[in-house]
Structures are given as C-alpha cells and as structure tokens.
Amino acid sequence: MTDTNALLKPLKLRHITLRNRVFSTGHASHLAEDGMPGETYRLYHGEKAKGGLGLTIFGGSSSVAPDSPLAFSQIDMGADRVVPHLEKMAETVKGHGAAIMVQITHMGRRGGWRGANGLPLISPSYSREIAHRSFAKEMEDFDFARVRGDFVAAAMRAKRGGLDGIEVMMAAHQLLDSFLSPVTNRRTDAYGGSLENRARFPIEVLSAIRDGVGDDFVVGIRISGDEMQKGGMGVAECLEACQLFAQSGLIDFLSVYQATGDTQPDLARMLPDMTWPSAPFLHLASGVKAAVDIPVFHASGIRDIATAARAVSEGHVDLVAMTRGHIADPHIVAKLRAGREEDIRQCVGANYCADFGGPAGMCIQNAATGREALLPHVLPRAEITKRVVVIGGGPAGLEAARASLQRGHAVTLFEATEQVGGQLKLAARVPQRESLAGIVRWLEGQVRRGGADVRTSTVATLADVEALSPDAVFVATGGTPIAPDFEGASLCTPAWDVISGAVEAAQNVLVYDETGLMTAIGCADMMARRGAEVELASADRTAGEEAGALLHVAYFQSLYKHNAIFTPNVRLTDAFREGNKLIAVLTNLYTGAEEEREVDQIVYDIGTAPTLALYDRLRAASRNLGEVDRDALLSGQTPEVARNLAGTFDLYRIGDALVARNAHAAIYDAARIARTL
Amino acid sequence: MSAARVRRDPRDRSTMRRAAPQEAAKTAPVRQIADDSPLVAVLIDGGAGPLTPLDVEALTLGRRLAVSAGHGLLAIILSTDAPSGLAGAGVDRVWAPPSQDSDALSHQITALWHDLELRRIVAVDGGEAAEVLRRIAAVTEGQIRTNVAAIDTSGCLCLEDGATRERQRDDAPLLIAAPGRFRPQAGPASGEVSGDMSTGAALPLSPPRSSVPDAAQAAAPVELGIERGDPASLPLSEADVVLSAGAGVSDWALLHQVAAALGAAVGGSRVVCDAGLLPRGRQVGISGTVIAPRCYIAFGISGASQHLQGIEGARKVVAVNADPHAPMIARADLAVVTDTGAVLRALLDRLGDTP
Amino acid sequence: MTRCTVLVSTGRNPVTGRPRLPPEEAAAISLAVRGGLEPRLLHAGSPDAALALRRGLGLGSPALDILDVGVRGDPLAALIAHLQGDRPEIILCGARAEAGECSGMVPHRLGAALGRTVITRCLDLSRDGASWIVRTRMSGGTRRVLGLPPCGAVLTLATGAITATLGSRWDADRGTVTAWPVDAPDDPRHARPARPSRRLPPPIAPPRDIAGGGRVLKDAGEGAEAILALLDEIGLR
C-alpha cells in the first residue's frame, strides 16, 4: 500500500505555506449568482476547507472583462462589486485553515457571443470555436493594452478581497492560450510565429500583474502539457512553453493541464471521466516537473488517495488536485488524517458535476454538495430515535438508510434481489462504466457499518413492514422498463435485458433510444463491442442527447469505431416477424415517412415506470397517505402531512419509484427527507 | 402525410476500407559482429517470459555503448530461465552463469571478464543484477559509477542526493545506470550515450585478483535452508505468483487452500476488500497496491480499469471468470470462462497435498 | 555481549527535503535491538548530522559516534579505518544512502576491506548459541536462512523490511553523542562540482491498454491443467 503521509506535508509557496499537498482546481461550479460568488458558493468552498484540503482555487474561468463571455455562469472579476464577496469567501476558507485563490481569465473566443454583453468576442486571429459556435474578431492594437489592464485590475480585486493569490488561465484556448497555440494564433506581427512571439502577450500580462500585485501575492498559471490536437502544441513544445514561463520569474507555480476544449471530444480529454484510466495525464505533469524549478500542480482523473499519494511521494508533482474528488467528498483530507480512509466517498468519474452541475445538483452521488445551506454533509443526530424501514436497496433506498442511520435512527432495509445497488448494478455492467459500482460499494459500506438490518433476497410485504412498527417508511422500489406501445412490442427486447446478460446480443441489431440517457448508447456500444452490427436510432436530434456533453464521448468514439450507424429523428412505431428475421418500422418525426429495417434483434430504451405494488398497500396504513408537504420539503422542514389518523407511520416514495430520473435525483429525494426525520 | 414505406439497409456495404499502414519494425536492426569482436557485457535478471522493463533498459544502454564503440553485446543472464526477445534487443551473445549464489556469481562473472577480455560490464539499478555488479566491483576493486544518467566521451553524468543533484565524473568500465534513464523510446529526460565510445574507459583486460582473503572464505556463513514464505502474510509486492479474488469468488477457504498449495500470495479486488473479505493491504489496483508479479491469476475479477492499471507490469495474466465479456478476460494470456469454484477445486485436485 | 555497530547517515525526506535518519537505517537499529543487541551508531560526515541522527538513539542504541571527516573527506575511508580498529562482530547498514553519492557500494567496499562476508537483504537476526541466524529475502517471497559464524559480517537490510515498530521507543534524549575529527583522504568525487539536476524524477509513461488476447478455455479441468502448465513453463512451480 502507498504511504499517504506524503500528502500531509506542507508546501511553501511564496509568502504562504499550504498545510498539505491536496487542493481543488478552479472549475466551473455553475454556482455563481448574477456573476457573483454568493452564500451557496461560499459554503461550497468553505466545506472543502473545513474538510482539510490545503488550497482551494475557486471561480474557474472567472472573467476579467465584459467582452469575456460568461459561457458557464462564471464569476465576473471585471467589476468592483465582486470585492466584498471575495472578502467573505477568503474569511470563510482561511478561517478553516486553507489557502484560497481565484482563477482569472479572458475567455477570448471560448463562449457564445450572447454572453459578452453584446460586445464582439476577441481572439489573436479571426476564428470560430466549434464548441460554442461563435466567431471572434482579431485583436487590434488598442485591444492589447485594454485587456492587459483588465487582467491587472482583476488581480488587484483578488488581492483587495484578501485572497492568497490568483491562477491565470493559460489553457483551453481561452484568450491567453489562444496566443500560445498555433491553432488559434495566425498573427504575423510580434505576437505570432515563434513560441517566443506567441508567448509575448501572456508574458506582458503576467508582468503587468506582478507589477500591480507586488511580492506578497501568489501568481500561477494553468497551462497545457499537450494540446492533443492536429496543428497544436505537442508535448515537446508545451514543455518548452512551461520552461519559458517558469524561467520568467513572474509566476509561483505551474498547474499542468491538457487538451483544448475546441470540440466535445477535446473537452472530454480535459475532464477525463470514468472511461479513462486513473491519472491518465500525470506523465505530462511529471515531465514538466523534471524540467522546471517552480512547484508543479496537476489535476485530471486522480480519484483515489493511493494514486494521489503516489503522484506526490514519487515526485511527479508538488501539489495534487482532487477537484471532482472533493465534489464527491469535501472531507477527504480530514478523513485521511483521522484514519478514516474507508469512509471517503470516492469520485467515480461520472462527470455529473461537469455535464450538469450547479444548483440543480453537483454530484451524482453526493446530494449535499452545492446545497450546504439546506443539506449538511454530516447530519446532526436526531433528538428522538425513530424506527425507519426502507424498501429497496437502489441508490435512493441506500441513501435513505445511510442518512437515517447518521441521524441516529434504527434502520431496516429490504432488498428483493441478492445484492443491493438497484439500477446502478445494471449500469455498472456497461463497458467502461464499472466505476459506477463504487457508488453502491460506498453506500452499502456506510449502511452496513452504520448498523442497519439489511435483508437481501427478501420481498417485503405489508406484514413485514408492520411487524417492525416503523415511524417512517421509504418506498424506493425503483421502476421497470416501459415497453413500446404497439402490437409487436413483445418481439422487442428492453435494453436492461441485454445489459444484465439475460439476453445475448444478436448479429444485426437495431437499438432505439427514446430517453437520450446512457442506457441505449451504452447498450448499443456493449453489443457493438461484442461483434454485433448496430444501428442506433433516436427520437432526438442525436442519440444520447440527455447523457451529457462529456459522458457520451467515449461511447460515440467506440460506436463509430465499431461501425455503428446513427439514425436520428425517428420513432420506433412497429415491429413484426418475417421468416427468421424481425422487421422494425421507423417513422421520421419531421416527414412522417416510414422506413423498415430487417434485423435479428430490436432493443429499446423508453424509460421506466414506477414499481408500486407495495406502495399502494402501504398507503392505507400510513399517516400521510404518501403525501409530502412541498413547502416544508423545500425549506428543509419535516414534510409531514396528517391525512389518516389511524395511520402509524409516514410514507415516502423516493427515486424512480416516484418518477423516473437519475441516480442523483434518487439520492437527493432520500437525503432531503431523511435529514428532517 | 404517409409516404410509401421503404425497406432500407442503412449500412453502405460498398465502403472501401483503407488498409492500416504496416507497423514499423520495433526490433533493433540486425548487425553482424566478428567471432573475436570485443564485447560489452550487460547483466540482466532474466527469468522466463518477455523481458522486464528494467532488463530492456539495461540492454538498451548496453547496445548503445556497444554500437558506439563498435563492440559486440553480451547478455549475462542471472536467472536460469532465459527471457524471450533477446535477439530483438540487439544481443549478439548470451551467457548464463551456472551458479545462483551471489558470491559465486560474482566470482564466475569475474572469471568470464578475464577469459573474454570484456570491455565493460553494465547494469541498471533496481534488480539483482546491479547488486551482483556492486559485489564484482568490491571484490576486484574495480572502478564503478553508479546512478548514471548519461554517458559521453568526457565521462558519466551521475545523479546524487536522491537524484536531486548531478555530477560529471570520469568514465569507468563498470556502470550502474539510474533506472528510467535509458528507456528505448527517446523522451525529454532520456539518458543519452553520445559520441564515439571506442576510446572510453575499458576494463583492465584481466581483473585484479579477488581481494577477499581466504580466511573470510573459511568463515563463510552456513546455509541452513530455504523457507517458503507464508502466502497469507507474503507482501503482494514480493510475490512471484499472486492469486487474486473478486466478487465472483464465494469459497474463500478453498481459495486460500489453493494459494497455499501454489505458494502464491493472496490478493483481491477493491470490492472484496471493501466488503472486508480481505484486509486493505491485499487490495490490488491503482487505488491499492500496484504490483508486477511474474504471474497474476485473477479469480472472479471483472477487471475495472483501476484494477488493470495496478497489474500493468504483470508478466503473465490468467483470468478465471464466468462472464466471457469481463475486461479481465480480454487482458489475460490465458482465460478460463467458467465457474471459479470449479476451477479452484480442479486445481486443488491436481495439486493434491504437496505444497 | 556481541558487539554490533549500525552505520547511520543523514537522509533527506523526499517530499519536504528536510534531513532525517533514513527509514532503512532506523529499521536496521530496530532489527539489532530486536535481536537482543545494543548497537552503537556510527556516522562519518559532519557533527551537524547529530540533530537528525539522535532519533536513532531513541530506537534503542546507547551511543552515537561521529567521525568528523570535514567537508571533502572520504567517509568510506574513515569508516574502514575506524572499523578495522574497533572490530565489531556485526555491522549493519542500509543498502544505500538517501543523500550524497547513494552508490550502494559502502557495504560491499567495507566487506572487501575488512575481509567480512556481506549479506544483503536481511529481514531478521536471532542468536543461536555463540553464532547468529539471519533470514534474508529472496525473490518470490522465499527466505534464505543463514548461520553466521562468530567472526562477523556486514549485513544490509532488505529495503522497506521493517517500519511498523519505528518510534515505539522514541526517546532521543538517552544515549551519548561523541564526535571527533578524523584525518580522511579527500573523496575523489569532489574533484568536480555537483549541480542541481534537471533530470528528476524519472518520467512515467501514460497508462496503456494491454490486450492479453490469449487462449480461452471453457472447461474447469482443462483450465486447471493449463494454469499449472503455464506456471511450469515460466518456472514458478
């Protein structure tokens, strides 16, 4: 096993000392309110500081100027009104012993033009980024001094706000990186051509910042170690760029990043998800570390403590980021220090935070992240111990059990199958999604160690529940696949059956995606990898539309590689047998025209409907008849409703048993009710 | 607006596939050397199976030295089993000393140095080979450089202070290279061998007499026996064979019995360690222990990527799993797709009671 | 009582860079103490090392001797001269230092100069009448058991052998520290200057996909035979 002590050693950084080697990189949390880091933002970072990390960099891509588009609800560092917010952020984070910085940038061409206050986007050369679909004008002479000034003013605001330093974004083809990269910089003047010329403007900006902020302020950059793009900078040139900045004497650290974000597959390389190996780009940071004299930081798919500790103890980096790791569990370092490594909720790399994020839910498995004001990460013990029964051991049921146990209640959990996990068990069978099992593993560990009575292979009955005389009952029985609404539906196979292994993939297959979730594209890929010829038909403009801008990438890559055919904008409207073949009928949503496919197997995902047999029986015996007080729920109060005086318990329907959504929603349903019990 | 329904094959079967370009040959070009060519010797650990990364590195260094000096390359293999891939690494001659004892080994290699008039003997740090070379240097009072990061006509660049400092030093005939510096692929930190090395340091044509006095030989330690480590307590990182179990294993007593019979250390997937079926120290994978055993046998482990990364260095991988689609099956050199318990029982039957 | 000396050096913490007693040498002290010995600690270098090395006294050693060889003196020559006079029966040291040349040659050069047998990778040491029994680590988890004649040997420790008991007898104020200047020849290494190295750490490769693409069997008996045949083929049975 790896010695984790290396992570706990302090690091001196200019005028400050970081208490350990673990940090959180600047990232788009989508939590800013009107461009400002408000209460939600402050508590979100405060929680990480409380949880023990050494440094938190907030405000991923915080804009320094009004023509830097707020592409993903960043912080506006271009206005003085941000300073009081920064002061509060600094007070909270420093109060918990961590250092705090903000990442500043000019987005350049990276963003939609609508986010730039009606001003033209700017870039070293006239160009358009595919990802955000907007053109940017070539910077004119007068733009240079203005942008330099904007950077200095933003840096001064950070200093006035009491932050320890800033990180200047010099990656992802944002403005300064657009100068560095030959992909985006086609200038023929002193700012284009050689690396020295391309680095001229970034160096001018850093130099002006250093002049402005003085010596007692940390300034670092986030820079690419490999653009991984045709015509872009490879490892050798990026290394040269890193050395150039390190030797400039202007900066205190280099945070090594990779890729560019120009397209969705490029973006997926910046935020490697569960389909990537662990620490896939650590070698880039390690190479930089070997070539420069200043501290090197790195983030990217470092999800577990052992890997993080190896990265530091073997000398590959000085500071290791577990940014998504802290979204899953803000208390990583505190748990490590307390010898409670087993309790760390490890990031599974689902990229829920990056694909969705924001106030509607940051983490697929941790409902409290980003909702600290209403939902504490550690629930206080209840004054009265209650008896809680949970029916169903999927994510909703497990979370209901876990949160109830943390409140001090006695919990009995019924699971009909041999193992808990619910639909996550299925999802984890899809190739490259094995990590999803980690959500279940952690929840189950917490529930079992917390002392719940877990009854697997047990289909709970009304009598079973009543025998326990519960105070509260959670129905988390999930759902079952909805079948297509036509006569030949029985000839079609639900994607679940293929994923579970109950049905083998046939040779020539039509997969129909109506939900746009991972189910159909994952199932299609699973079959394509096993040699099936797959056509993936979807009702949306593309398959997997709801799966997220990052999450779908690995599956599209694999589906294309395995020669799958994509057919968008159709509905599956009929199926019939002809000889030993099946005929599928696809109807074009725009024209109504029908086409037939001759295949061996028709597989579909149309979503799930709640499983309600037990709920219907429990309703009559419950106090609230299953109803929840919405206002109470939204304000964090106990959502009790007294409808049936003969009832002996409160009944809560959660997760897909309530309505089909996803794992985050299921866990959130459970957490916010359980916290009030 | 119902148009006539058509049946269509969406797949354009006439698409021409462009042939994949031929992979460039990765082996060293063939070179003829004369029977009486002077030789540069490389000490490697060897062992059955493909060459280890460390041995590949030693041979890369040896070949660069040999080629730049116009000498032949002799591989001295310490293990009784010859690895595969020696010819591809540019080895001209191979010799395996008869003894396994490190004292005797160093004397035999010293004798070979005398007989063949070897020009250099080199090794890469981290294995038995480097230890043997240290012994040779000590008993012959030979000039040796250690932690070598680069070599050119002016001498060796040697790392010091835990590789944080470096110092240029005179060349020496015995060299131990720092690991990771002479990998086959060129990289930013790859050590170089540059210049015409034919005038570089060379071993004296015959080694000085062994400096170990006879009296000490008389008082040599007595060999009292070899103990097989207890597989249950054998550290994973030390074991040649690791028998590893995942969620697909239910009979743990049987698994431990088979491990004991094979003399294998027991490891496990994250799932079984999380479930408390094995202690955390037994968890194989990048989030547990990274291992490189000579043989890794995975029972009922599906093979999540963090697990596969943790056994990247394993030389042979065996997967036993009821699921033919488990990633571990694709990773394996030998796969058995069936119930894990059945294979464990069959193994135990064949191993009998013999340890 | 058998006289035992443990050679100690100043190491450096790989993460913070601070001087320390290398864990391997701390383990060597523990190993001697567990074997029933009272090892003296011996360091050739600068008296400044005492601060970091005192920790070794807390592990159960009564005394630390420092041979002050000055800035350029050759510590190995000083150690050889001292040990030729002192003649402890058992000399323990780490396989290689954490700072300085880190050549790993010290035990071997000492053995050659003192006419002692060098036994590497020791795991433990126990008394057997007048002689000693040493267990050493061999590959694949096997252990070699050696009987040590009373005339003495140089033992080096298996890397990472023992760390669990470190600090259990932490009491650095016990024991005595003596330092005296020694005339040692210049270390020839210092003929040329050292400079910071840009070549650390060894670069790592990106993770890669490995396809085994091997044989697939379905029958348990056949599978068991094939597994055993594979182990035979690579010499592991």
Major β-sheet annotation of chain A: 8 strands, parallel, barrel
Within the CATH hierarchy, at the fold level, what is the topology of chain C?
Rossmann fold
Give the termini distance of chain C in whole angstroms.
43 Å
**What is the CATH homology-level superfamily of chain C?**
HUPs
| Helical percentage of chain C | 10-25%
Would you give the CATH topology of the largest domain in chain A?
Answer: TIM Barrel
Helix share, percent of chain A: 25-40%
**Element string of chain C (H = helix, E = strand):** EEEHEHEHEHEEEEEEEH
Number of contiguous helices of chain C: 5
Into how many domains do the coordinates of chain A divide? 3
Ranges of chain A where pLDDT stays below 50 over 5 or more residues in a row are: none
How large, in whole angstroms, is the Cα Rg of chain A?
27 Å
What is the strand arrangement across the widest sheet of chain C? 9-8-7-10-6-1-4-5-11
Low-confidence stretches of chain C: 162-169
Outline type of chain A: globular
Number of structurally distinct domains of chain C:
1
SS-based class of chain A: alpha/beta
Please name the fourth-level CATH homologous superfamily of the largest domain in chain A. Answer: Aldolase class I
Helix/strand structural class of chain C: alpha/beta
Protein name (chain A): Putative N-methylproline demethylase
Domain NADH:flavin oxidoreductase/NADH oxidase N-terminal (chain A): 7-342
Organism (chain A): Flavimaricola marinus
Keywords (chain A): Flavoprotein, FMN, Iron, Iron-sulfur, Metal-binding, Methyltransferase, Oxidoreductase, Transferase
Describe the structure.
The complex is a heterotrimer of chains A (677), B (355) and C (237). By secondary structure, chain A is α/β, with parallel strands linked by helices. Chain A folds into 3 domains: 4-361, TIM Barrel (Alpha-Beta Barrel); 387-480 and 610-674, Rossmann fold (3-Layer(aba) Sandwich); 483-606, 3-Layer(bba) Sandwich (FAD/NAD(P)-binding domain), CATH 3.50.50. Chain A is 31% helix and 19% strand. Chain A is globular and about 75 Å long. Chain B has 2 domains: 39-183 and 200-204, HUPs (Rossmann fold, 3-Layer(aba) Sandwich), CATH 3.40.50.620; 231-353, Rossmann fold. Chain B is 25% helix and 21% strand. In chain B, the strands form 2 sheets. Chain B has an 8-stranded mixed sheet with strand order 4-3-2-5-9-6-7-8, with helices on both faces. A 5-stranded parallel sheet of chain B has the order 12-11-13-14-15. Chain C has a single domain, classed as HUPs (Rossmann fold). Helices cover 24% and strands 28% of the residues of chain C. In chain C, the strands form 2 sheets. A 9-stranded mixed sheet of chain C has the order 9-8-7-10-6-1-4-5-11. Chain C has a two-stranded antiparallel ribbon with strand order 2-3. Chain A: InterPro entries: Aldolase_TIM, FAD/NAD-bd_sf, FAD/NAD-binding_dom, NADH:flavin_oxidoreductase, OxRdtase_FMN_N. Chain A: In the N-terminal section; belongs to the NADH:flavin oxidoreductase/NADH oxidase family. Chain A: Its EC number is 1.-.-.-.
